[in-house]
Amino acid sequence: MILVVDSDEVFGKCILETLKKNGFDGHLSNNAIVAINDISEEAPSLVFLDPILTGPDGFTFLNEMASYADTLDVPIVIVSEKDFSGFDLSEYNVVGVLDKNKIKPKETLSYAREYA
Fold it and tell me: Taking all residues of the chain, what is their mean pLDDT, rounded to a whole number?
């Protein structure tokens, strides 16, 4: 299962729809608390995350992911309007950063094919 975590429901659904149309199983969580609950039920194979969330931010979610053995190594793709290129996110197993303003469906599929 691929988890999409984004408080922008329309954007999150677009990623999820692209994944599902291409044979991937996915789930959308609209905030960090829901996402944390979701990973406690099933560890995802890949996460697309916008760290700028309503309520607790995406780093709360990332810290939670890093605290469990079964989710520690799950690849994370940051999808955000904010520029994270200068940040060292390797401790969170971030495998890529996509610009939310320029993202193309083939980019999400590329990550899904490689990591999910």
Answer: 93
